[in-house]
Automatic annotation (TrEMBL):
Lineage, uppermost ranks: Bacteria, Pseudomonadati, Pseudomonadota, Gammaproteobacteria, Legionellales
Quaternary structure (record): The Tat system comprises two distinct complexes: a TatABC complex, containing multiple copies of TatA, TatB and TatC subunits, and a separate TatA complex, containing only TatA subunits. Substrates initially bind to the TatABC complex, which probably triggers association of the separate TatA complex to form the active translocon.
Keyword Iron: no
InterPro entries documented for this protein: Sec-indep_translocase_CS, TatC
Topological relation to the membrane, as annotated: Multi-pass membrane protein
One Gene Ontology MF term: proton motive force dependent protein transmembrane transporter activity
Protein name per the record: Sec-independent protein translocase protein TatC
Annotated function: Part of the twin-arginine translocation (Tat) system that transports large folded proteins containing a characteristic twin-arginine motif in their signal peptide across membranes. Together with TatB, TatC is part of a receptor directly interacting with Tat signal peptides.
GO BP: any one term: protein transport by the Tat complex
Keywords for the protein's UniProt record, in alphabetical order: Cell membrane, Membrane, Protein transport, Translocation, Transmembrane, Transmembrane helix, Transport
Length: 245
């Protein structure tokens, strides 16, 4: 009995030591990225603000707090560091849980993590290059007569980061579908039957997140629908893999 208790205690200690090691690695990479990006903090903010600046009559944002010109770019540099470190965080998570996985699970998780990170970054790029220009053009155009659109740099950062994360999350639709199918929560056939509802849902999301014109809403809705179709396609291979195990 004492031998079993000692063995369990050693396993728990090894578990905590390994977890701490992975967390330290992740923290070091995050701090290194931040140390590099903080030097370019102002340039990063200018890059983030470009989709709006081109539509502003005065061509600049404003800072309503005296410390905002320093802290807002600083905050952006840290957020950008976290976003860039996501693949490394995912790798450390995989390396931590890999010993507890079966061989076929270890072979599947690598492509899964790579596709997940790629889709997340694709969603961010889609928001920046497609949604931001349409949205800011619309907002600048509908300003009432006598009103000059002059957003605060802190409010703009919060607004754009939320949108970037929303679209990064939306582009994870195929991964979520694959997880649901692989765990047996939802079958692939069920997703196929729900295709019509998914199309309607995609256009509802387009209506909520895109400017109120048909073209902009369609530009957003069609990629979301295609992501749903990609999830159906990917879940087909997941089912085959599970069947072969």
């Amino acid at each position: 009995m004492s031998a079993n208790v000692s063995s369990n205690s050693n396993e728990a200690i090894n578990f905590l030591v390994e977890l701490r090691r992975r967390l330290i690695y992740s923290l070091i990479v995050l701090l290194l990225l931040f140390a590099v990006l903080v030097y370019f903090a102002n340039h990063l903010y200018t890059l983030l603000a470009l989709p709006l600046l081109k539509f502003l009559p005065q061509g600049h944002l404003i800072a309503t707090q005296i410390v905002s010109p320093f802290f807002v770019p600083f905050k952006l540099a840290f957020m950008a560091s976290m976003l860039l470190a996501v693949p490394f965080f995912l790798y450390q998570s995989w390396a931590f849980i890999a010993p507890a996985l079966y061989g076929h699970e270890r072979r599947m998780i690598w492509p899964f993590l790579l596709v997940s990170a790629g889709l997340f970054y694709a969603g961010i790029a889609f928001a920046y290059f497609v949604i931001f220009p349409m949205l800011f053009h619309f907002l600048a155009r509908i300003a009432p007569v006598g009103v000059i659109l002059s957003p605060d740099i802190s409010e703009y950062l919060d607004f754009t980061i939320k949108l970037l994360l929303v679209f990064g999350g939306l582009f994870e639709i195929p991964i979520i579908m694959v997880l649901l199918v692989s765990t047996g929560v939802v079958t692939r056939e069920r997703f196929i039957k729900m295709r019509s509802y998914a199309i309607v849902g995609a256009f509802i999301i387009g209506m909520l997140l895109a400017p109120p014109d048909v073209l902009s809403q369609t530009v957003l809705a069609v990629p979301i629908w295609l992501l749903y179709e990609a999830g159906i396609l990917m879940s087909r291979f997941v089912r085959r893999s599970n069947a072969s195990v």
